[in-house]
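ESCALATION

Customer reports they have been waiting on this structure for their group meeting. Please prioritize. Original submission:
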Amino acid sequence: MNIKPILLSLALGAAVTAQAAADKVVGFYPYWSQYSQFYPKDIRYNFVTDIHYVGLAAGEDGSVAFADENDAENFKTLVQMSKDNNVKLIVSVGGIENEGNLKAIASSEELLPTFVSNVSSWLSANGGDGVEVDWQNLTAEDAEDYAKLLNALVDGLSGAPVTAVIYPAAGMDAYKADALNRLAYVDVFMADQMTEDNSSVVPNQSAKSVEETLDAVKGAGVNGDLLVPVIFLYGKTWSGAKGLGTSHQGTGSGNEGYVSYAELMGKFDSPEYKVTFDASSKSEVAVSDAETIVFMGIPSVKAVAEQVKSDGMAGVAVYDLSQDHHEPIVSLLVTIGLQLRPEVNYKAKKK
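Update from on-call: job pushed to the front of the queue and completed.
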């Protein structure tokens, strides 16, 4: 089934009336993009307002360094190209398995100012406009230390943007709203809803689940105009399933069941898959004889962008830039941009 004409008509729908807020389009750029041959030169800088580089690791002594030193040269290029294209570059510190060091830093009166100083020095030496804290697996016991870390960075970085990724699925009691409300904005990351623990197929991410998560974050006292929901640019595949609500036999095609959005669009050019939009969850599902794929496509991503715009939130983020489709008519970055930044030229460049 060729769904590109349908996707194009949906993407080019009338953009929501512009408001003061809701104009950020954030793209995550992880260091491992180099291993899939996606480099800073491949980013469509006019499609985004901010790039979040993932990233840096915090040492137990309060130091900061590239999580992968092999990406240092790429980062230099990223800094220059972001500057040339007037895109803010935020450097993410932390990530999976770095939470122990972040906790040690945040809970120490000696290490915390050292860490802030080291972040500031690193940005001065290497480039980048600001920093993002990515402290994962937070618990309520970490709430005080986490707030201290955020406040120390906001106070110590001389007006440079400080942001954070939060994980509401783990519980909002790990976050203090007054600390989050001091940030430039807050990226709201949602856990995969569809895993092998599910006996039957459910959407992995949906406009409905995004809305519910954002409502929970606002309900915890975080200012709505700071929120940036993170959209996954990948689908998850399930062998033997015949659609939502049906059983599966484990992961299907792709990298352990993960398939980038760009790859999905290639799959759907063939008649093998029937692709539909599930109105109840506001998500997409594709079914073939062999598998079911759950993903976010143009209709669901457009719904998220419309909500963000109408509610005056800060913007929308994508994870990650390397997985979007290069053709504007099916690009999810373009889908978001048409709602939040309709003045941008999203047409494909002539070869």
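Sent to customer with the following note: Residues 14-232+297-340 form a domain with the TIM Barrel fold (CATH 3.20.20.80).
Escalation resolved.
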